Amino acid sequence: MAMKQATKGEKRIARYDPELMVEAYQFQSVMQAFPNHFHEHYVIGFIERGNRNLKVRKTCHYIVPGNLLLFNPGENHSCESRDDQPLDYRCINIQPDVMARAAQEIFGIACQPMFEQPVVYQSDLIPELRELHSMILQGESGVRKEERFYFLLEQLLREYAATSGAEEAEPLRAEVQAVCDYMTAHASEQISLDTLGRIAGLSKYHLLRAFTKETGITPYSYLEAIRINRAKMLLRDGTSPTDAALTVGFSDQSHMTNAFKRFIGLTPGQYRRVLAENRAEDKEEQSLK
Prior knowledge:
The protein is an alpha+beta fold.
């Protein structure tokens, strides 16, 4: 069963597929703007309805139905409605280790693929992606779904990704990288701008300017993204939203809920419920075999 929420015409659906180890989201009639943020997973998505302004890799794109979206882990992006029309958006999220294993099976080499362009206009692969997405949301299992997943991924990686490992992102300034590393290591702690400034060797103001220019997001947004991704792993293991919020460093559940809703379009409770429903369905299917 996929989790659903409907408020004033909105519908938000999500499902975790334990066979493919991917997530599938579908948002319908959503007006929400998503602020600049990033995920630790790949995002392969497409728009069914609605026109949006997307900013990714410091470039603005006008995206419409039929566009294919390809985001790498850690790639910050934001989007908002262009014409006040509701959005119908669907995506599949793939963790880096799952992508690396799939790429090794497909190409026979160890690599971490990186998509070279975030938007493919009027892609002819969307019908195949739509079908795979539908299979995941409907809880389909077996060879047909896995076959579609690998064949589609092969086409996407061959056409739009660097798989040799030779293509690397431009490195961050040393002082900004040091701040990123510190926040990653200490995300569950209360971090002050004074501390980050000392690590970077910059004043607080110049740190904010340098960090935002280099990464495209503020230090706090970067910290929120790390905490959200870690909270998702705890929620998958059955941790309550309250405990997850405190464990990853949010001051309380309300702060985590607000960040979850802004960045991924679901509340922590909704995300946790869909995973619990998936596990219950899997147990029921096993008992019937």
